[in-house]
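# nightly structure sweep
# worker-07 picked up a monomer target from the shared queue
# config: single-sequence mode, recycle default, output format = structure tokens
# input follows
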Amino acid sequence: MTRRKPGPSRSPVARPLSRRRFMRLLAAGSAAALTAPARRLAAAAAPAAKQPTPALPPKLLAEIEKQRRSVADALKVIRDHPLPPGSDMAFVFQPLRARRRT
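# output follows
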């Protein structure tokens, strides 16, 4: 396993753009610009028929509402729990040291 040396960002923005890559991007952008009006015409000519979403069964809707109420009740209990002033935090984040790789 090789390690990279820290240094400048390795993102494509940080590298100089080669002529070949520039020409490829220019061609792709030009093609997209030229085909945009044709795509709009095709979309207007054939509007997509929207499929109506199927109605959910009543049992499923009842179960979703039951779980929603259960979560709301649990959150209410947690939020209403009194904490004395100056009490300890629930947890303290302590980062672990990284293990050495061999």
